[in-house]
Write a structure and sequence with these properties.
Number of helices: 6
Number of domains: 1
CATH architecture: Alpha-Beta Barrel
Number of strands: 7
Radius of gyration: 21 Å
Helix content: 25-40%
Order of helices and strands: HEEEHEHEHEHHE
Largest sheet: 5 strands, parallel
Structural class: alpha/beta
Strand order of the largest sheet: 3-4-5-6-7
């Protein structure tokens, strides 16, 4: 075995990295899509099995935009397809992130039955859904996504006690949508910043 000094090892490694950088990202692209699976888990008693990892769409999300949507449609779709090809079948969105049309574009040629869609409805007074019946909001979400149903809808950022009473309008609307088969499961996200 040939002896290699630490200095020469580092120099050789940097030269190789520089070669890849100069050669462009095309050198790093795979010529095939590897078969990768992601564990699926049962989601409580909802009857849904979801991939353990979801593709989030709301980094620095709000006001109908997020870091992911600010990439533009083409790049977003590329990222979503990359995730799908690697076994991620669970997409996490929110109306406030503006991500429904982006996910809709990404999934339009994918088998819907293999995908889990989770979105969130904003129930605070500054939200776009404050004076709109829940059914109308869900209809718009489904139209933006290009799907007949949404797997999971969460009431977003419920951080104060009493939400089960003062958000009754949303809870009732989501329960009816579940009975009508428009959504499969209902929940809440309980966090703050």
């Amino acid at each position: 075995m040939k002896n290699l000094s630490r200095r020469k090892f580092i120099r050789t490694g940097l030269a190789g990295f520089a070669g890849l950088t100069v050669g462009g990202p095309g050198l790093l692209k795979l010529t095939y899509t590897p078969e990768i699976t992601v564990d699926r888990v049962k989601l409580g008693n909802s009857g849904l099995n979801v991939s353990r990892i979801a593709l989030g769409t709301g980094s620095r999300g709000g006001s109908k935009a997020s870091n992911q949507t600010r990439l533009g449609m083409e790049k977003f779709v590329e990222i979503a397809h990359h995730a799908y090809q690697r076994g991620i079948r669970f997409f996490d969105m929110a109306d406030s992130y503006g991500s429904h049309p982006y996910v809709g574009e990404a999934i339009k040629n994918l088998p819907r039955e293999k995908i889990t869609l989770l979105t969130k409805i904003w129930t605070y007074e500054d939200g776009s859904d404050k004076n709109i019946p829940v059914q109308e909001s869900l209809d718009r979400y489904r139209q933006e996504l290009g799907t007949g149903y949404i797997d999971i809808v969460l009431m977003h950022c419920l951080m104060q006690g009493g939400w089960s009473q003062n958000r009754r309008h949303y809870m009732d609307g989501l329960s009816k949508a579940k009975q009508d088969g428009i959504i499969k499961a209902v929940g809440v996200s309980c966090h703050n910043w």
